[in-house]
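Support request, please re-run this one:
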Amino acid sequence: MVDDGSKDYTAVVVARFADPHLCYYPKQNAERGAARNYDLAHAQDEYVIFLDSDDRFYPKHLATLYAKTLVHLIRLGC
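Re-run finished. Output below.
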């Protein structure tokens, strides 16, 4: 998670989650593209997804997206 200089106590909220897969990276505020590039530079896994603070996921959004990705990869023979 990249915190692009927010003032909404993001660090406090993230600290409540004890998940080794969740990493918190604070940085000074810049444009959205800079935050995303910063996120990509720190990514350590196969998939990356962006969710801006004013956006929301539907329930099961990530599970559905992952399942669709697997189906697509199988069709491609990957």
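The longest helix spans residues 61-76. The chain has a mean pLDDT of 89.
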